[in-house]
Design brief:
Layout (H helix, E strand, L loop, with lengths): L1 H14 L24 E6 L4 H11 L7 E4 L8 H7 L1 E2 L11 E3 L9 E3 L7 E4 L4 H19 L4 E6 L2 E3 L5 H13 L6 E3 L4 E2 L5 E2 L21 E3 L4 E4 L7 E5 H14 L5 H4 L8 E4 L4 E3 L15 H6 L2
Parallel strand pairs: 1-2, 1-7, 9-15
Antiparallel strand pairs: 3-6, 4-5, 4-6, 7-14, 8-16, 9-14, 10-11, 12-13, 13-15
Helix pairs in contact: 4-6
Length: about 325
């Protein structure tokens, strides 16, 4: 009887879908999508936003850079079963203190419900986590999985709201410079601008972490650390923005392992800082940054509206 029970438990666990099962696979990766020191260049773009991809291409084409268009996961089209599977299931003892969390019900499920997390087995996300933000996270993880499975050592991931500030080919030089300064195994991610920006173009630094329902960093002080390692590159403990980042194979592995173990809870650019051993760096002078006031579908499916089509160019 004991062996039958063990078998049934293992069988049930094997039937449970894993986070990786919800990753999206790329298609038609033919063509040249590389540059010196970078094995592959991705750009994440919703099928409903061709104008954003074209605008970004116009930014990069003068430099001869041709990113592979990765068809993004559209969070607004995900099923409630998928949403329930990829978030954090509540277990006894989990807490966010006095902070609310968000969950989605099967009835009228696209409208988020907010409460203090308490119900065992219910899938929660951070307060006000949108379906669009869940899709963004799945898109980035899908890219990381493809890159890791492809054997790439160094990749460049962009979103479709970039602004090229100066010659992106300087990044090849900065990669070599960072390798020399901290060692090839001494860094995981290099961001191509100093910090993210608000709609007025002002920098928005990040020096702390948000609460996560099922994970607590071992050293919360690390997020405030910032120091120069060369005249052009600095170490950072945290930052916002995932629109342009160079990721080493070690970084792919650390992020994939973290999310597969802990699932999705926060927006991606608040979660990639969480792995205890992740090593983040940024350039000091912007090379590729974000375009202020770029149309977004994070908080709602705004694609196709007259306003956003106008802003897109």
């Amino acid at each position: 009887m004991k062996y039958v029970l063990v078998f049934l438990i293992l069988f049930t666990l094997n039937l449970e879908a894993k986070l990786k099962d919800y990753f999206k696979k790329p298609i038609n990766k033919s063509g040249s999508h590389t540059m010196k020191g970078i094995d592959f260049i991705y750009m994440i773009n919703l099928d409903q936003r061709p104008e954003k991809f074209e605008r970004s291409l116009q930014q990069l084409h003068p430099w001869g850079i041709n990113p592979y268009r990765f068809s993004a996961v559209n969070g607004w089209e995900l099923s409630v079963d998928t949403i329930t599977a990829v978030g954090v299931k509540y277990k006894t003892g989990m807490t966010l203190g006095n902070m609310l969390a968000t969950y989605y019900e099967k009835e009228n499920w696209k409208n988020p419900v907010h409460e203090y997390p308490h119900k065992k087995g219910r899938t929660y996300f951070c307060h006000c986590m949108s379906l669009g933000a869940i899709g963004i996270c799945l898109s980035h993880l899908s890219v990381l999985q493809d890159a890791f499975d492809s054997g790439y050592e160094t990749i460049w991931i962009m979103e479709d709201d970039i602004e090229v500030i100066s010659d992106p080919h300087i990044l090849s030089k900065w990669i070599k410079k960072l390798d020399k300064a901290v060692g090839k195994d001494g860094w995981d991610i290099l961001f191509t601008d100093r910090d993210t920006k608000n709609n007025n173009g002002h920098y928005v630094p990040c020096t702390s972490c948000a609460l996560r329902l099922n994970f607590t960093p071992s050293d919360k002080k690390k997020f405030a650390k910032r120091y120069e390692v060369t005249s052009d590159i600095r170490y950072i403990g945290a930052r916002f923005g995932a629109y342009s980042m160079i990721v080493r194979r070690s970084g792919m592995q650390k992020l994939l392992q973290f999310f597969k173990k802990h699932n999705i809870f926060l927006p991606y650019d608040m979660d990639f800082i969480m792995p205890d051993d992740i090593q983040l760096f940024s350039v000091i002078h912007d090379i590729v940054s974000t375009k202020p006031n770029s149309p977004s579908d994070n908080g709602g499916p705004n694609y196709g509206t007259e306003r956003d089509l106008h802003i897109g160019f």
